[in-house]
């Protein structure tokens, strides 16, 4: 079918499911630290209190200034790939056509640019680096060096949609030196202060000042309207680009500092008129018309909903990550089977919750919405925000 995806909930026909094959390590360097350095914007903001990564430690004295590779345990990767296959199988059993990315080679390659190099990670959270807006694929400007060329691994799928008539654009590629990053958000937190120190940026001959760095997962799509989160100058530039690029076709609504970057573990749209939110406080950040929608706030996730990890396992998400569900239609939602409370809450609101196993979401940074890219849904360019 042709590329057609305007919203987060209408009947799903085709989807890409990410892959974690050959995931071996995280490369800890400035862009990684900054991305996962989840700072807390306000101490009395209930929406944010649980946001910290207790085991994300800063580099010790004497360690290399460049990237430090932190191994990811093989067992977790194997279990994750098993769960991803389960997700793909469930989607297929519901009649959805599933595409998969190209796997990275077992000997993890590196990205080299004139300014830096970093090890490559697999195309797992594929929601992040590509925005599908209607009949257009937009590869967004990455925020993590290891993920600089991640969308290359989706090339065969994108080429096929292009052949069938899709538009295909790539946002300007950043030089991504240390000076490209606006560190103000990460450095201005309160509520106990920034959880992890961010290293001082190092100068480079390639510095051009702040650049556009913006992930697709900062957006939610509502037909003609797109909600986009802006927390830094980098995001602002990214949204300026999007706005100019989509002018006359889509309307962008900026929300400010709803989260540090991605918003799909804060708020998701399940059907016209219904949002799934981490807390009621989220509503205040949203554009006026959305504040009138019904809100489902699931019970706060508890530690027993998650596996226990060792001290050397990096935890990359908040406990709210399972809010990151995937809608296959306006009444059916794929939910982590580890969250019976969330399933019950959705059922109480008339949804069918399909349980799917997903054990290590906190180690790999994503739930079902993050791991997928919905390329064909029935919905069109409608005005939902009136
Ligand atoms: N602080 C980010 C960190 C993050 C982003 C993407 C991930 O896949 C995982 C974690 C979250 O709130 O959005
Ligand atoms: N598209 C994504 N990768 N979203 C993940 C967001 C996770 C968010 N940082 C959290 O900790 O809850």
Give the mean pLDDT: 90
Q: Identify low-pLDDT runs.
A: 39-65, 190-194
The name of the CATH architecture is 5-stranded Propeller
CATH homologous superfamily descriptor: L-arginine/glycine Amidinotransferase, Chain A
Q: Secondary-structure element order, as H and E?
A: EEHEHEEEEEHEHEEHEEEHEEEHEHE
Return the CATH topology.
L-arginine/glycine Amidinotransferase, Chain A
Largest sheet: 3 strands, mixed
The share of residues in extended strands comes to 15-25%
Structural domain tally: 1
Residue share in helix: 10-25%
Output the strand order for the largest sheet.
4-1-19
Q: What general outline do the C-alpha atoms trace?
A: globular
Radius of gyration: 19 Å
State the total count of DSSP E strands.
Answer: 19
Class of secondary structure makeup: alpha/beta
By CATH reckoning, the class would read: Alpha Beta
Number of helices: 8
Protein name: Glycine amidinotransferase
GO molecular function, one term: amidinotransferase activity
InterPro entries: AmidinoTrfase
Family: Belongs to the amidinotransferase family.
Name the descriptors.
386 residues, alpha/beta, L-arginine/glycine Amidinotransferase, Chain A, three-stranded mixed beta sheet, 8 helices, 18% helix, binds tyrosine, binds arginine
Secondary-structure topology with pairs:
Elements: E1 12-17, E2 25-28, H1 30-36, E3 68-71, H2 74-93, E4 97-99, E5 110-112, E6 117-119, E7 130-133, E8 136-139, H3 155-163, E9 167-170, H4 184-187, E10 219-222, E11 225-230, H5 233-246, E12 251-256, E13 267-271, E14 274-277, H6 288-291, E15 294-296, E16 326-329, E17 332-336, H7 340-348, E18 352-356, H8 361-364, E19 372-377
Parallel strand pairs: 1-4, 8-9, 11-12, 14-15, 17-18
Antiparallel strand pairs: 1-19, 2-3, 5-6, 7-8, 10-11, 13-14, 16-17
The protein binds tyrosine and arginine (ARG).
